[in-house]
Write a structure and sequence with these properties.
Layout lengths: L6 E7 L7 H11 L3 E13 L2 E7 L2 H12 L4 E6 L5 H13 L5 E3 L17 H8 L5 E2 L3 H8 L6 H13 L4 E4 L9 E7 L5 E7 L9 H14 L4 H17 L16
Parallel strand pairs: 1-2, 1-4, 4-5, 5-6, 6-7
Antiparallel strand pairs: 2-3, 7-8, 8-9
Bound molecules: pyridoxal-5'-phosphate.
Length: 264
């Protein structure tokens, strides 16, 4: 067979403003030289000022999108983002079990920076029980890691404990993003790999409101690198470096939490 171009899928919600969700994922995948596809779970009416409204699609249409992909394309890696509520988390889990889309990056999206709930509170348990065990790598921020593990995370020790707790819940590799930490100088992420080894990643904190879609971008970049055959630690390091560059070389779009620059 001719060498096929690496194909990946994001299973997530859209952002009409183009900065987060499926749109950020596809831009990141394009920049990382993989072919991006999408299973749309929810549609948001959104801009840099916030999420004005959203609606999840009928689960039948989500099933059909999975079928469309699996009957034609050769998806090598996948990621999940906004999944809206428990019935949609369950629907995505059932579809992921029926197809083989390669390594799964789970970005357990819960609340947008503007405060909008992108996952119903009662769906956190479904994510923990059904989706986390399928994760090749999970990429929570501090509030998401706390919600999934039930731990209070206020220092490095607690971040490490939360990483181990997420592995016990079934995620093979974990990156906990410390961007919500108090440290004004650096953003420190804790990485725990499947073999039990761990390391910290740090990047200088950039004083900007233009960070809309950073979580999506990180998880999409990791997915792209895994599809190209990168080792997990390398994929995570590349993701962190890509996000740091995309935040630093900011572009002026919109009046609120502006999007990242994907031409870095
Ligand atoms: N909208 C969608 C569809 C998302 O998936 C996400 C994050 O994953 C966001 C909005 C939130 O983006 P942020 O919190 O970076 O503003």
């Amino acid at each position: 067979m001719v060498n096929e171009f690496p194909q990946v899928v994001t299973i997530a919600g859209t952002d009409s403003g183009g900065g987060a969700g499926v749109m950020a994922d596809l831009k990141t995948m394009q920049a990382r030289h993989v072919f991006g596809t999408a299973v749309v779970v929810a549609v948001t009416a959104q801009n840099t000022l916030g999420v004005q409204d959203f609606m999840a699609l009928p689960t039948k249409l989500i099933d059909e999108q999975f079928t469309s992909l699996v009957t034609d394309l050769n998806i090598r890696a996948c990621k999940t983002g906004m999944l809206a509520d428990a019935s949609h988390v369950h629907c995505v889990v059932e579809n992921l079990k029926r197809v083989d889309f390669g390594p799964l990056t789970v970005d357990p999206v819960m609340i947008a920076k503007g405060g909008a709930a992108l996952l119903a509170a009662d769906a956190i348990q479904t994510v923990r029980d059904e989706l986390v065990p399928l994760a090749t790598v999970i990429t929570p921020n501090l509030p998401e890691a706390a919600a999934l593990t039930g731990l209070t995370i206020e220092d490095d020790q607690a971040m490490m404990a939360a990483g181990h707790a997420l592995q016990e819940l079934g995620a093979k590799n974990v990156i906990i993003k410390g961007g919500h930490e108090a440290d004004p100088q650096t953003a420190n992420d804790f990485v725990l790999l499947a073999d039990g080894s761990s390391f910290w990643l740090s990047a200088p904190r950039v004083d900007t409101v233009r960070t809309h879609g950073t979580g999506d971008t990180l998880s999409a970049c990791i997915t792209a690198e895994l599809a190209k055959g990168a080792a997990m630690a390398t994929a995570i390091q590349t993701g962190k470096a890509y996000v740091a560059a995309a935040i630093q070389q900011t572009i002026q779009v919109g009046h609120g939490h502006g999007p990242l620059n994907h031409w870095v």
